[in-house]
Design goal:
The protein has no helices and 8 strands. By secondary structure, it is mainly β. It has one domain: Translation factors (Elongation Factor Tu (Ef-tu), domain 3). The strands form 2 sheets. Strands 1, 3, 4, 5, 7 and 8 form a 6-stranded antiparallel β-sheet that branches. Strands 2-6 form a two-stranded antiparallel ribbon. A hairpin with a 2-residue loop joins strand 4 and strand 5.
């Protein structure tokens, strides 16, 4: 379960479960629930529970996301530059 950040999710959509693991799980949304009702469509901002075909609860961990197949890519490292403010700067 979680919040839909952008776009929509509907019953029958093909999805990928990505993040935190190297392998990407593929599934189909077989149901959507927003307590206490069942939905056909979830929109951005909705907190929903998604029922996924062939995926056990143990295969999904906190922090993973559902996405349209091929729409996002995970990364393990990145380069960045950090500037630390001095005491006078705040």
């Amino acid at each position: 379960s979680g919040r839909i950040d952008r776009g929509t999710v509907k019953v029958g959509d093909e999805v990928e479960i990505v993040g935190l693991h190297e392998d990407v799980l593929k599934s189909t949304v077989t149901g959507l629930e927003m307590f206490p009702k069942t939905l056909d469509l979830g929109e951005a901002g909705d907190n929903v529970g998604a029922l996924l075909r062939g995926v056990n609860r143990e295969q999904v961990v906190r922090g993973q996301v559902l996405a349209k197949p091929g729409s996002i890519q995970t990364h393990k490292k990145f380069k960045g530059e950090v500037y630390i403010l001095s005491k006078e700067e705040g």
